[in-house]
Fold each of these.
Amino acid sequence: MAITKKDVEHAAKLARLALSQEETELYASQMAKILTHVEKLGTLDTKAVEPTSYTISPKTIFRKDEAKPSLPQDEILSNAPEKAKGCFKVTRIIE
Amino acid sequence: MELYNLTIHELHEKLKKKEASSLELTETFLKRIDAVDGKIKAFLTVTKEDAIKQAKEADKRLASGKDVTPLTGIPIAVKDIFCTKGILTTCASKILNNFVPPYDATVIKKLKDAGAVILGKNNMDEFAMGSSTENSAFFTTKNPWNVERVPGGSSGGSAASVAAGECAASIGTDTGGSIRQPASCCGVVGLKPTYGRVSRYGMIAFASSLDQAGPMTKDVTDSAIMLNAMAGCDPQDSTSIDAPVPDYTKALTKDVKGLKIGIPKEYFIQGLDKDIEKAVKEAIEILKKQGASVVDISLPHTDYAIAVYYLVATAEASSNLARFDGVKYGHRAKDAGGLMDMYCKTRDEGFGPEVKRRIMLGTYSLSAGYYDAYYKKASQVRTLIKRDFEDAFKKCDVILTPTAPTPAFKIGEKTADPLTMYLSDIFTISCNLAGIPGISIPCGFTKDNLPIGLQILGKPLDEETVLKTAYAYEQATDWHKRRAGV
């Protein structure tokens, strides 16, 4: 399975990762090797097979839709890299 | 025997008979951590003051005699993947190197409610991605049986801390073998319950359809005691199973007469270490002598499990780890140009190489044009793997296999090639894909004196038969009584 540098750069952009040149090249070769290994799945006929995402729970567990107290605002913000006026602060996104 | 080498149930007896207080036990383990953890490196954080406070509370509870559980006053450790209120929780990642959760994971809350004393947070592979703890952003944990070897992973710190007597027990998480494989490497008991048996709330997510928490203990009785406290439906986890929780210690009867043990031919393959093969075959004979019978079974899609796993787990990881963006908690890159630049730099600086590799693989396989060929295909083959087990369990009650194809490998031996590292999970991965319970228990040592693990897999929600089989074998042998000479 060939993976180009361009493929890796595209995936890195989707994944929001600023990869270095060396990382891009390393991942291209390693991902190619791993994806070659997974190619064996192609030998199985799965046309009539339903995919499995969750194995055991036959149904979603619902709970009552009740209003309950949530964590206090200052505790929620306690780990914020930057905060202002009770909000998470990020750099300006609208010019 | 030294106090720090005792099991939960032995320590509980001492507490009940007032031969020791929880404070004494806690101080014993803290001293033991001071003495050996410089060598073993099983802890990322030791919470000495909190532990002493909790021990004093436990002693009050023990003195009153009210509401005493088998875990009241017992000092345990927890993997650094569980959110602990007010205590640094890093998941062994730089991106969370300053994260102090404002709440406890449900499992932590349950263990605290039972009166357990928490000594600290165990090292692990970053975000539970790895089989050796070598992917921890901070340091590699050493195997207490041989410090040149890895303790296994990802719950390697948990396994090593139990094996080195730094705690009475620990808890880990298992996405593809991360409890059972390190248990096998360190000669302890590691149980992965049925998917949904234990709440995942507050457990930092790696692959949500596979992750499950479980106990890591010195023997099978302790495993049952811990599972009693951990299991149960949780309104905070919509995938937790709403089924009654039995008293798992009642399953420890040694009675395996008529039990049908399935032996899958696909697990006794080329590349399986000779000492391990011999030990597992001897274990089968021991259970046969106690009245169990053996059935040959086949799990025909075993060979595809690693391929399925590394597509499903990485896809789920790529979306789960999207939350680490430098906005709400954790590391944020300095001097970024704008929001997009901040995201990309934060994540590049914060994640280690293996985590990035898996995010990249997952993002790639989910991206436009590849979804059907990779993620969907893997999910379909996952159905076939699950069906293999359903068919097998029509013929047997439990399945016996080696936990890992080799004993603990040398530090540095497999870091160069990710695929070689992935292949060390070959016997543990299918269990997660099928959602069934599995345990690893000690079943001998290699010629080089490295522990060997026996894996017992069971039907969904049938932890009782798994524990019963494990207990019957354990009680007929002495492996669980050996301690690493640290």
Note: The longest helix of chain A spans residues 21-38.
Amino acid sequence: MKRRLSNLSISHISSGLPERTISMFEYGIDFGDDEVKRIIKSTGVESVHMAEKDMCTSDYLVAIAKRLMKECGSSGKDFDGLVLVTQTPDYILPATSCIMQHRLGLPNSAVTFDINYGCSGYIYGLYQASLLVSSGSCKKVLVCVGETNIRTIHPMDRANRMVLGDGFSVTIVEQGKNELMFQIHSDGSGYSYLIMEAGGFRLPVSTETAKPVQDVYGHNRWPEYLYMDGMEIMNFALSRVPLLVEEMLADVGWSKEQVGLFAMHQANQLIIQFLAKRLKVSKERMPVSLKYTGNTVSASIPLLLTNVKENFSTEKLKKTILCGFGIGLSWGGVATDLSDTIIHNSWEISRDELVKMRRDIND
Amino acid sequence: MTNMEKYINAFKESLEIDDSIITDELAFDSIPEWDSVGHMRLMASLEDTFDIMFETEDIMDFSSLGKGKEILKKYNVDL
């Protein structure tokens, strides 16, 4: 699907991370120090942030949204839409976006919904918000993305445990002067390559799903936890993403050299380097920024923008490509002008702040 | 250093293994070091070593040290 949407603005991006961090070297106890060092060389991840056990996705996102509103001089009443992209909602039912509407003080007339996507999710969220605004349904929409990923990973799942981290971000999409050129794709034939198999209605949690089973390579995997077939995901990323970027450039009419920033989903260091090489784009224009955050799934693109904003002038951000890819399988991108976007500094959110926030809103 | 020596060296350095297990039969997933993470590093190392860029299907087909020799021929790397 390709779609050019006009008269829009990605006006603000604000990101946050749980205060608590885990060094990958702590995993030497479980996996051995040499193994940890070997994996760090490939993934580029040295530490990640981890959500507090008693806090959920909406707690972090409401904190970020409240701070963003304060910094913008706005309040919940100014928003008439909220799109939440997460794989770790507070409850199976109801939609967490509904709970966030209440907690943020959005009017009852606001449209809110959850989108269950991961690493491509920021693009899906921007697309949905842009449709709401460009159709005239909404004037100002909050796009909330983020996950409490770490609690979806089995303690002995070495590959996922050493790359995924928790992170959150809130973006405001409203009426403006910019165009956003979207491409969105999905291919469910690869659904089993990234999956949390048990816990839904096809395979409810049971004593059986608590036991490990063998994957196609003969390794243990745990149906109640996230599973990733690393080889197939690498195949998917290298097959689909370069083509997606080339098509987006053709659609929007930009040469590769004109693009100031390629903001890619931060899967891991080597995948980004492979993509940059295949697209013949310098590492300066396709940055890697996950050393202290890991792969934060749907929040990785806005967190990247936050982390690298000082390196990119307003001029460079006039032609920006954002690109996500992952679970579904799904992939997508948007080409747009971010030169007027206010990218706020990220902050570390303490448990005390969250407790106080919840108390203040009588939650 | 000959191309064959460079090829073997790429395995040793990217997978962090020693000579004793280097044979044509050394295969993906046959040792803990050659998992998907190790495979990415190996492919990156071979691309840098021989100044080539693998097609994605060759990255997936690169299932053993012996098979890799066949694949490199496609890229005019004579071992």
Note: Chain B has one domain: 3-16+27-74.
